[in-house]
Design a protein that fits this description.
With about 425 residues, the chain is α/β, with parallel strands linked by helices. The chain folds into 2 domains: about 250 residues, Aspartate Aminotransferase, domain 2, CATH 3.40.640; about 100 residues, Aspartate Aminotransferase, domain 1. It is about 45% helix and about 15% strand. The protein has 14 helices and 13 strands. A 7-stranded mixed β-sheet has the order 1-7-6-5-4-2-3, with helices on both faces. Strands 10-11-13-12 form a 4-stranded antiparallel β-sheet, covered by helices on one side. The protein has a two-stranded antiparallel ribbon with strand order 8-9. Strand 2, helix 7 and strand 3 form a beta-alpha-beta unit. The protein is globular and about 60 Å long. It starts with a helix and ends with a helix. Bound molecules: pyridoxal-5'-phosphate (PLP). Pyridoxal-5'-phosphate binds next to helix 6. The site of pyridoxal-5'-phosphate has 14 residues, from helix 6.
């Protein structure tokens, strides 16, 4: 394909509606009837739903069952005007947020922190997503390091596989990001991490598990280094926070990664992934109030009045927090356990199937995010062949690979088999 062809193709892929539905380039002079607007929204929904509903997507929609989706929408509808910035008008928003925080903390062994140090109690907030939770934690460590440790030019040490949000945080907040390699098993190299600690280090990071390869870093050892040095240890459980506790109960090998470890000082965990909430919520938890306060902001002498905010936003989507609360309460421990059982069983079948396909291999030993690579085939061509068959997979590099993050969609009948049949055909074609 020539360059203009490629660009035209890309434009078609990203803007497929240009020629199909009206483009609104300015406000309509007269507002359209609700029914007409809703019909357009529904038309677009229907065009897009089949692909993720049928399990063609990696991650993206983590539950997606019709009844559950309708329930989230109904929960949203009850609170659509809510804004936690006005606690006098919506005290319920404060209740929902506090309960999402405490339910999540208790799932991640939050009760343990008092046994490590008297007076400690997990504190946190609901943010708008994993990225915001990570930004907030990095901001808190930067300011805590400055105020408590006197570090003027803070550094945070991350495995190269840590989420791009850490890079974004470093960029936004002027934090030095020190990247350490991962081993053959795709887990953080603890010796390299230890060696990278300097007088400027304010925190170490580990993922449970990592986005690219689904590998759980050796959090116990990372947290021990942090504890020994008196610095922070952030665990990015955005992806695994709502699965690993239940995987552990089901007998899967899950190394300790939560507040059971005295060195773990904060955890990010996404309600909008395996918590099965609607997109737009995540939780950031800290081991104690003191650390949490470093993410909060107060403007005392603004003419607009006393302005207090605990996250990056000002006005916040109270309805999304309420819908996240509803998802947690309606799913319950039994629901999360059941979903974990289904997803992990599907992942086991998928991994076994991939390992039987000549020329392909699974990177590391993941539980539910399966990165596929090859020593002999061009893996991007295999991914391209999968795209032609409808799959939306995540391309990875260093090393080159692609992954599928399994969700409830992949636990539906026939999806894993379809993936394996297509993958075998894709590899054959490339070969
Ligand atoms: C998804 C994810 C994030 C970022 O979350 P967003 O909700 O996309 O902002 C961070 N870390 C890991 C491991 C993730 O999987």
């Amino acid at each position: 394909m020539s360059a203009p062809d490629i660009l035209q193709n890309l434009a078609k892929q990203l803007k497929p509606y240009r020629d199909r539905v009206e483009t609104m380039e300015r406000l309509p002079a007269e507002g359209k009837p609700h029914a007409e607007v809703l019909a357009l929204l529904e038309q677009l929904r229907d065009l897009e739903a089949a692909r993720w509903q049928q399990g063609y997507a990696s991650g993206a929609v983590y539950h997606g069952g019709q009844e559950h989706t309708d329930f989230l929408s109904a929960a949203y509808r009850t609170q659509s005007q809510s804004n936690p910035l006005h606690p006098d008008l919506w005290p319920s928003a404060a209740k929902f947020e506090a309960e999402v925080v405490s339910m999540t903390a208790s799932m991640l062994s939050g009760a343990e922190v008092r046994t490590h140090r008297r007076g400690d109690r997990v504190a946190g907030a609901v943010s708008t997503g994993g990225t915001e939770s990570i930004l907030l934690a990095m901001l808190a460590y930067r300011d805590w390091g400055r105020d408590e440790l006197g570090i003027a030019q803070p550094e945070v040490i991350v495995p190269v596989t840590a989420h791009a949000a850490f890079e974004k945080a470093a960029h936004y907040f002027g934090i030095g990001l020190v990247r350490v390699p991962v081993g053959e098993d795709m887990r953080a190299d603890v010796a390299a991490m230890r060696a990278a600690v300097t007088e400027r280090t304010v925190a170490l990071v580990g993922s449970a598990p990592s986005f690219p390869h689904g590998a759980i870093d050796p959090i116990e050892e990372i947290a021990a280094i942090a504890e020994e040095r008196g610095i922070g240890c952030h665990v990015d459980a955005c992806l695994g926070g709502f699965l690993l506790p239940f995987a552990e109960r089901l007998g899967y090998p899950v190394p300790p990664f939560d507040f059971r470890l005295p060195g773990v000082t904060s955890i990010s965990v996404d309600t909008h992934k395996y918590g099965y909430a609607a997109k737009g919520t995540s939780v950031i938890l800290y081991r104690n109030q003191d650390l949490f306060h470093h993410q909060c902001y107060t403007a005392a002498d603004w003419p607009g009045g006393l302005y207090v905010s605990s996250t990056l936003l000002g006005s916040r989507p109270g309805a999304l927090i309420a819908a996240a609360w509803a998802a947690l309460v309606a799913t319950g421990e039994d629901g999360y356990l059941d979903s974990a059982r289904r997803i992990l069983a599907a992942a086991d079948r998928l991994k076994a199937g991939v390992r039987e396909i000549p020329d392909l291999k699974v990177l590391g030993d993941p539980l539910f995010v399966v990165a596929i690579a090859s020593d002999t085939l061009d893996i991007y061509q295999v991914m391209e062949q999968m795209s032609r068959r409808g799959w939306s997979l995540n391309g990875l590099h260093r090393p080159v690979a692609f992954h599928l993050a399994l969700t409830r969609r992949h636990a539906e009948d026939g999806v894993v088999d379809r993936f394996l049949t297509d993958l075998r055909a894709a590899a054959d074609e490339v070969r």
